[in-house]
Every structure is written in C-alpha cells, then in structure tokens.
Amino acid sequence: MKAHKSIAIILGGCALLAPAHLAAQAPLKVGFVYLDPIGDAGWTYQHELGRNQLEAAFKGRVATQKVESVPEGGDAERVIREMAQSGCKVVFTTSFGYMNPTLKVAKAYPKTVFLNCTGYKTAANVGIYNDRYYEGRYLCGILAGKMTRKNLVGYVAAFPVPEVLQDINAFTRGMRSVNPKAEVRVVWLNSWFDPGKEREGALSLIAQGVDLVTHHSDSTAVVKAAEEKGVYSIACDSDMSKYGPRTMLTASVRVWGDYYIQTVRQVMDGKWKAVNTFEGIKGGMIKLAPFNAAVPKDVAALVNKVQGDIVSGRLHPFTGPVVDQVGKTRVPAGKTMTDLELEKMDYFVQGVAAELPKN
C-alpha cells in the first residue's frame, strides 16, 4: 500500500546460529523490517523503541538488525529473505503489506520464526500481532468532544482500510458519547507516510473551520501544522508534544517492547507457537501520552475513568447500538462487535461527515 523511492538498509551480517548446546555462546539474531524512516516519532519509531528495549533486556544474548524505508511488495520479500539467509532466527515484519511476502519467505525457511504486524494470515512458523488501537482512539475522541468549541473535528487518514476505519469510528463514537453535536471531517492521503500531504491535509481541514485535528498517518506534520495555526491536535502512534507543546492535547501511543521481549523469550525457551496476538490498554500495547496543561482536570479525570472501564471490561468502544452514517443499525443494542467483524469494517458511523472513496 505504500511506496518509497529509496531503501535504507542497515544489516548486521547475521551468521548462522550455532547448535542448540552452544546457544549461550552465540546471540540469537533477530531482524526488523520497517516501512518508514525511523525518525523520532511515529509508527516506525515506536517499533524502534521496542527493538532497543529488546536488546537491553537480553544484554548480549540477542543481536538485532533493522532495515528501514522498505516498500511493500517485491522489495520487502527481498529484504525479508536476506535476513533469513543471513541467519536471523526471528524476523519481525512491521506492516500489513509485508504479510504475503513474509508468508512466501517463511515457506523456504521453516526453522525461522516470522511475526507480521497487523496481518491476518498465519502459518506454522508465522504469527501475527496487532494492538487494539481503537481503544486509545475512543479515549481520544472523548477528549476531542470535550475540547472542541465549534463541534467540528478534522481527521487526516491514510487509507480507507478496516484498521483506519475502526479508528475513525472509535474516535467518533467516543466524541459523540460526550458531545452528540460534534462531527468529524476526513481527508484521505492514500499514503502512510508523506509529510507534505499530511501537512496539506491538516491545513485543508483547518481552513474548513475545524478547531481540533487528529491523524492516522506516520509523520509529525499534522501536529506541527496545528501548532503553527494555534489549533488543538491529538497525535497518532507517538507522543509528539515536542512538536506541539502548546496545542497537542495527548496521543494514543503504541508500545511494542514487552511483546518483543516475550516473543523472543518464548523462542529461546522453545515454547513459541504461531498465534494471533491482539492486545490493547490492559495488555500494555496502548497508552495515552500525558495530557497537555490545557486539558481541564475534570476532563482528564473523565478520560481516565473511561480508560478504567475499558480495562475492566465494563465498556467496549463497539458495543451496540452501532449505527452507520446512513442510519442502518450495524450492531444491535447489547451486542459487541467481534474481532472478525472489526477486521472487516467497511463503513462510517454516525457523526462522520465524509464519504468513503468509491474504489
């Protein structure tokens, strides 16, 4: 889904693993394939923090390598294959578009463990992992509903795929739970990482009159644009407050380090199995960045209370009634959307003032 003009490769020359009885003398080689430049915030940056945490946790027993800015498709297959060929015994591929290349390479390297982030296909040596990002989005929506004065919020979005639609809808449902008059306007990028387009999208929404913007895209451009224009923002993936010290209210932050440590430990112990890992706030994969001083204490307390309700299971962002923007009930009252239903989401809920692209 995402293309880049260049590939920055950092390979550590993984040697073939020694036999099991010599494992203590040779570090386990672990590879990471990244979609974007690492930078200092955003999707790939959060995975890089996790990689660093993994290395620190094992203190020389693990040696990692990374390849950043890898386009989805043929280039991804080549990079993944090179990692396996060079002796990496665990390979994390950190984008949905890497799923099929990962599966293809995995067939040729059955003794290597592969983990694809946000995919849905598994194999004997391929697991998948994702976070319940919609939980953080719901909380951010509550904050937006309380902080908007014009009842008009902007959303800069990458692609109209289920993962993104989940998050827009969760954000909108959270917002409307405290402010039924508020609506969300959406600008599509057709890119995960394009700072120029992200900035243009944010400025376009601000020109339409929104007084708060958020995004599902990988750079800091939206937060920077909001800071420049004096408009509130809520950041995606990382705490970007250094780019919006006055106006970034919070961020829904992805946390991968504990998962990477747990997975590698399972491989080392011979206990790893190919599973679908899907965790949210309770599982430690999602957290909110500290609130900006502009957020009133009672609003912060409300968001924290609802977060507790999500963690305890008292509240699910997609418990019915879930009604789409044309008035059709998608989930009746008392029912909660299953993970499978969430993975297939292809509509907007009430409160989203935008149309889905036709193709």
Walkthrough of the structure:
The protein is α/β, with parallel strands linked by helices and 359 residues long. It has two domains: 8-131, Response regulator (Rossmann fold, 3-Layer(aba) Sandwich), CATH 3.40.50.2300; 133-253 and 287-343, Response regulator (Rossmann fold, 3-Layer(aba) Sandwich). It has ten helices and 15 strands. The protein has helices at residues 43-58, 74-85, 99-108, 133-147, 162-178, 195-207, 221-229, 257-268, 297-312, 339-343, and strands spanning 8-10, 28-33, 62-68, 90-93, 113-117, 126-131, 152-157, 183-188, 212-216, 232-237, 248-254, 276-279, 286-288, 322-323, 329-331. The strands form three sheets. A seven-stranded mixed beta sheet has the order 1-3-2-4-5-6-12, with helices on both faces. It has a six-stranded mixed beta sheet with strand order 8-7-9-10-11-13, sandwiched between helices. Strand 2 (28-33), helix 1 (43-58) and strand 3 (62-68) form a beta-alpha-beta unit. Helix 6 packs parallel to helix 7. The longest helix is centred in the middle third of the chain and has 17 residues, at 162-178. The radius of gyration is 21 Å and the shape is globular. It starts with 7 loop residues before the first strand and ends in a 16-residue tail after the last helix. Mean pLDDT is 93; it is low at 1-23.
